[in-house]
Amino acid sequence: MVPPRMNKRRVLIVAALFIIGIVLAGWYFTRQNGDTDTLVLFGNVDIRQVSLAFNGSERVVEMRVQEGDRVEAGQVLAILDTRTLLLQIAQAEAQIDVQKQVLLRLKNGTRPEEIAQARAEVAAARADSDLAAQQLKRLKDIEEDSGAAISKQDMDNARSREKVALAQLTNRRKARQLAIIGPRKEDIAQAEAQLNVSKADLGVLRHQLSLAELKAPVNAVVRSRLLEPGDMASPLRPVYALAITDPKWVRAFVSEVDLGRIKPGMSARVTTDSHPDEPIRGRVGYISSVAEFTPKIVQTEELRTSLVYEVRIFVDDASDRLRLGMPATVHISLKGENGTAGAMY
What we know:
By secondary structure, the protein is α+β, with helices and mostly antiparallel strands. Among the domains are: 50-81 and 211-240, CATH 2.40.50.100; 87-207, no CATH class. Helices cover 45% and strands 24% of the residues. It has helices at residues 4-37, 83-108, 112-145, 152-181, 185-210, 256-259, and strands spanning 38-52, 60-63, 70-71, 76-80, 213-215, 220-225, 240-255, 267-271, 280-287, 292-293, 307-315, 327-333. A hairpin with an 8-residue loop joins strand 8 and strand 9 (280-287). Helix 2 packs antiparallel against helix 5 (185-210) and helix 3 packs antiparallel against helix 4 (152-181). The protein starts with a helix and ends in a 12-residue tail after the last strand.
């Protein structure tokens, strides 16, 4: 017969084992439910980058920022030598002034003094023509009245002088008519077109002058400073490399099994090894439609040889804790997978 004390001990042991089983079962189901509600992915932080270079080839005279500096859109980062451009601009401005005066002269037409000069030249030509005609008539009269012989050469010279005088008179009359009419409309249009060409050339030079200042296209952080004052810049030589901090995302990969459990807009939490207890808010923004082999950066051994799909989780990194290439863990809330996507944290 078993002593009562022994029976009591067995009952206590059985009760303790029962309680432990309940606790373990609860923990297991709790963990399973947690895994069902959250999908954990591993990836790396990614951002966009831009390389800045000058459009022209000239000597760099000033570099204004260093690696790590934050720059704003429109901020001047570097400057080229502009002495040659300034001289070309001055030359173009002088050429425009010349073209303006030419156009003004054509629009104002012929001056009264020029018309008076043309009339005087016509009068002089008429006098020469009359004189030549009189000399020819005198020679003819002498030959007819006195019967004296006039040499053929003298008669030919008189006739030639009369013809030349008449031609000069006609020419002077045409010149007077043109002076009265004034410049042609075509000449005025040509002068205006030439003035516009000169202004366009000046605009190109001023645009090149503005490009001598290298400006930041967006808010960013300077990653690399690649030239120094005195270096020769060109469109093929980057001056700065900038990291665009917005947008910023984590590039992760999801297996085909879990692909149907996520969709764009789902909320997510991103943690890093340096701040494991300070998650950063995020959302699923892009899911690749093409499968690929698991890249080496994926940190789960069971997925090394599997086909996966790229997923981008865009983050709201207001404190700028995430750096390019930093490993990160993504927790995607799946609570809204059967309805709408989970709300942002």
